[in-house]
Amino acid sequence: MKIAFLFPGQGSQFVGMGKDFYEKYPLAREQYHFADKVLGFDISGISFNGPEDKLKETCFTQPALYVHSIIINSLMRAKGIKPVAFAGHSLGEYSALTAAGAFNFDAGLHLVKMRCKLMHNAGHFNKGTMAAIIGLAVEKVDEICLRASGKGHVQVANMNSPVQTVISGTMEGVSEAMAIAQAEGAKRVIELNVSGAFHSPLMQPAIESFSAALDQAQIHSTEEPVYANVTADPIRNAMEIKSLLKSQLISPVRWMKSIQNMIADGITEFVEVGAGSVLAGLVKKIDRQAHVFSVGTVAQYESLQL
Q1: Please, are residues 230 and 64 in contact by the beta-carbon 8 Å criterion?
Q2: Which of 35, 113, 140, 146 is the most exposed place for a label (fewest CB within 10 A)?
Q3: Are strands 85-88 and 291-295 parallel, antiparallel or unpaired?
């Protein structure tokens, strides 16, 4: 049995996340108190009590998800569960890299705090949005983006499953692509509640400052592979990790290919470590035979048997 840990990104958060772990496990309390201090705001209170609109803000969503995932990862390790590979969706890649040992919890918190601030600022500088296209193959969505690009920049941002693709770009470009997708028979077309065109060139204003932060961060090579968003390939080398994190902000997330590569490399069990079950659902759409578990609550953690 080969186990991989998967870590969720924005969209998986919910008010109350982590509260059950905080109330039951001293390790969770310690890590939440540490995170509050490092971040300079009450991420535990926002995670546990909301309000929902505040938790949905990029600068709170990303650290909330990161802290929650890393606490559960720590408890899973204490339970003796040993993954042999890792992957994380967008923000979740930072959780995956922490879990794999590329950097520690403290360094990860600092990077996540800067990342979400820079992404938020870039979204104000270059106004944009994102939308999910359900029911069309990624090749079709790519073609639709090309057809819509006369109205404004739009491109594939997340290749999530055979029938779910997220697009990103200017308001005009995304709006045009959404209209074309509906006309072409998409089952659903949903504009996402985000503060910018993530994983597209509209995030370029964030690159310079974030690259400098990554250059200063202590990043280590890992023993076990992390399947990178940008390439979908397994990486271990510290320099490659750093380089791909720089590219991640403006590059599509190749999630479907990452999961396919993990399965090809012998992974038999996938555990979504953190809030919600979005990634578990995507894995089942990618491969119906995959064994998938979600661990985002104390009840799920305590009932997990691998």
Answers
A1: no
A2: 146
A3: unpaired
pLDDT digits (tens, 9 = 90+) for 40-81: 999 999 999 999 999 999 999 999 999 999 999 999 999 999
Catalytic residue among 12, 69, 90, 95: 90
**Known catalytic membership, residue 251:** no
Asked if 301 contacts 17 with a C-beta cutoff of 8 angstroms, the reply is no
Identified catalytic residue from 199, 251, 277, 294: 199
With 0-12 CB in 10 A as exposed, 13-18 as middle and 19+ as buried, what is 28?
buried
pLDDT tens figures, 73-125? 999 999 999 999 999 999 999 999 999 999 999 999 999 999 999 999 999 89
Is 90 known to be catalytic?
Answer: yes
Give the domain ranges of the chain: 3-124+201-303, 127-191
Residues 246-292: tens digit of each pLDDT: 999 999 999 999 999 999 999 999 999 999 999 999 999 999 999 99
Name the pTM for this structure: 0.97
Please provide the CATH number assigned to the domain covering 3-124+201-303.
3.40.366.10
